[in-house]
Amino acid sequence: MEQHRTRPPGARPRRTAPLPEQGSPAEPPVPRTPPRPRKAASPLGRALRRTPLYRKVSRMPLYRALRRMPNPRLTGLGSGLFAAAVMFLFACLLQLLFGGSIVAYGVLFLPVSALTALWVRPADLVSAPVAVPIAFAAGVLPISGGTGGFGGQFMGLLTALALHAGWLYGGTLVAGVIVTVRKIKLMTRRRQQRQWQQQQRGQVRQPGHPPQRRVPAS
Fold first, then answer.
1. Relative to the CA of 12, which of 22, 40, 56, 103 has its CA 20 to 30 Å away?
2. Disordered: where is this region (predicted)?
3. What torsion, rounded to 10 degrees, do the Cα atoms 79, 188, 70, 81 define?
4. How far apart are CA 117 and CA 111, in angstroms?
5. In 159-178, which positions are buried (b, 16+ CB within 10 angstroms) versus exposed (e)?
């Protein structure tokens, strides 16, 4: 005798997911984003690399040593402290070795200004030309020639800054030029990144096969 299965009174029917309609178009596959291309050199850089002067300089041991130097990224405060500490150390060494030569101090100030402008991080580029003259004034104290107490040291500092302002302006100019070049390169790089992102978004939005519309049955 055939027995019919009975369902308990408290049980609920299971809900199953609706099956996709037959004939519905499949979603187009999302194209993968291609790897980001390597940054190409600027036209000015390529032109400079073709010059005989660049080829001669690139073969020099000093140029290769500079290329192998570390490339830190200092904050605005860190760049100012770096320049002031290095210049104060140079002033102490010059006072011990040469009796306090401000001309040699000014010559050493130029590469320190260049390194400060090169090592400051991109977000604090404006702080490098401001920190460099402060470092010059802070480091020149041991060789300023001031005597006596605070008043004599202060007058000696003012005299040294007035007589050797050319080195101060020269180092500040070097830092300003380097910071300006870095800022222009940074703006150009950001513009190229935006253009590349827009191109990738345009390629992703374009499907490989347009979806087919379903024609209702008559």
1. 22
2. 1-45, 195-218
3. 0
4. 10
5. ebbeebeebbeebbebbeeb
Alpha-carbon distance 107 to 109, whole Å?
5
Residue 145: left if φ>0, alpha if ψ -120 to 50, beta else—which one? left
CA separation for the pair 76, 125 (Å, rounded): 8
Give the residue among 26, 121, 39, 6 at the shortest CA–CA distance from 72. Answer: 121
CA 7 to mean position of chain CA atoms: 71
Nearest to 129 by CA among 93, 84, 94, 175: 175
Asked whether the beta carbons of 149 and 91 are under 8 A apart, the reply is no
| Type of residue numbered 17 | A
Q: What is the pTM of this model?
A: 0.60
Is the Cβ–Cβ distance between 128 and 120 less than 8 Å?
Answer: yes
Query: Hey, what amino acid is at 203?
Result: Q
Return the closest-CA partner of residue 143 out of 196, 192, 199, 103.
Answer: 103
Lowest mean pLDDT among 3-7, 138-142, 173-177, 196-200: 3-7
69-125 pLDDT, tens digit per residue, is: 666 788 889 999 999 999 999 999 988 888 778 888 889 999 999 999 999 988 888
E strand or H helix that includes residue 109: helix 102-119
Question: What are the structure tokens assigned to 114, written together?
Answer: 């260049």
The pLDDT value given to residue 17? 56
How confident is the model over 48-64, as pLDDT tens digits? 677 777 777 777 776 67
